[in-house]
Amino acid sequence: MFSARDFEAAARDRLDPVHADFVAGGARDEITVRANEEAYTRLRLLPRVLRGRAVPDLDVTLFGGRARTPVLLSPTAFHRLVDPEGELATARAAAAAGAVMIASMASTVAVGEVAAAARAAAPGETVPLWFQLYLQPDPGITEALVRRAVDAGCTALVVTVDSPVLGASERNRRNGFHDLPAGLRCENLVDLRDGERGHVRQIEMSPEFSWDHITRLREITGLPILLKGVLHPEDARLAVRHGVAGLLVSNHGGRQLDTVPATLEVLPEIVAAVAGRIPVLLDGGIRRGTDAVKALALGARAVGIGRPVMWALAADGEKGVRRLLELLREEIEDALALCGAAALDELTPDLVRPAWSGRHFGGAGVGGAGVGGAVFGEAVLGGGAS
Asked: Which of 71, 271, 290, 293 is at 20 to 30 A from 328, Cα to Cα?
């Protein structure tokens, strides 16, 4: 395997086509699925030279923990659907790479077992593991899930907020894929209440959730709370006012509301809205190290990958995920060196330009407005670039 994309073809040779469609698919016409990747092709890197730099440093500190790579594993459901070991294999690979893994609430392995597997793969190290949470209408169930995450040693909660209802996947509907095969279940949703021995609860989504629920969540846990799924800058400002610790700019991989913007397109606005008060992370469409470098230069502190992890796991289990993370690390190191940067904090907006769009470069002359200015904003958001 020589790139993240190589894993998909190998995975499709092994997977039931219905399960491959589950991994690949998105909502409705999948416009946003495609847009997430295409957004990176509309930006160019503008490197610096002769800066006398050593080997790039990829370490990143987030919420008191340290990771050896800015690539984190975004929450993805049902890993045992594509590999018998499922999330155990993924956790071991992430721990070996020193990468943050966000354990999905819809995991087919319980979060405590995921954490144990990660620790065993990196003895003596502090393994960065976060837990993804869907708020539940029953506050007692939400509290039980938070307790499980805390007991497992998770150090942050990633609350998915873009799912008041379940996104409509036409692939899953056409394939009749509505439930896990026999023998698999969402292990984090088992035995959540006394007297429910063996009972598996369903994830309940509700359009009634509000900022008050985030306030109540902060009252029951001291863990840092990140919101995953904020795309509007006003919501980013509200998040800061409600004491949120960070944002993961995400459109659910295009699996919720179709036709929303690519996450890269809204990243500069979100970064501007929070104005450095909390860290901003991003997922959606990252397939190359240069994709990650562009997002990091535009203000993301780290970037997440979802589908590539599932394809790599399906292709070659734990070894596949390890190889995927190695490839991305190599590509990021290479891109940093070629951009004249020695560390992640030396990736700045001036290293990124919109693609050529005719007589003017991104709507301005080559010596015109820099990245992050009005011209760049119009180009990235669709007003000036094709």
From this structure: 271
Quote the pLDDT of residue 55: 78
What are the helix (H) ranges across the chain?
Answer: 6-14, 17-24, 31-41, 87-97, 111-121, 139-152, 170-175, 211-220, 233-241, 263-274, 289-297, 307-339, 374-380
**Which of the following is catalytic: 79, 199, 252, 360?**
252
Task: Tell me whether strands 60-62 and 71-73 are parallel, antiparallel or unpaired.
Answer: unpaired
Please determine, for residue 99, whether its predicted confidence score (pLDDT) is greater than 50. Answer: yes
Model confidence at 196, pLDDT cuts 50, 70, 90, reads confident
Q: Are strands 43-45 and 352-354 parallel, antiparallel or unpaired?
A: antiparallel
- CA-nearest of 207, 180, 149 to 77 is 180
- Kindly state the tokens that stand for 64: 């008191």
Tokens of 303: 């970037």
252 is known as an active-site residue? yes
Are 188 and 276 a contacting pair, CB within 8 Å?
Answer: no
pLDDT (mean) for 40-54: 93
Euclidean distance between the first and final Cα of the chain, in Å? 32
The alpha carbon of residue 364 and the mean position of all alpha carbons in its chain are separated, in whole angstroms, by 33
pLDDT in tens, 368-381: 334 443 334 433 33
**The two three-digit tokens of residue 17, written as one number:** 């086509």
- What's the farthest any 2 CA atoms get from each other in the chain? 70
DSSP codes of every residue in 122-141: STTS---EEEEE---SSHHH
Can you give the pLDDT at residue 365? 38
**pLDDT tens digits for range 251-280:** 999 999 999 999 999 999 999 999 999 999
Task: Label residue 237 exposed, middle or buried (CB < 10 Å: 0-12, 13-18, 19+).
Answer: middle
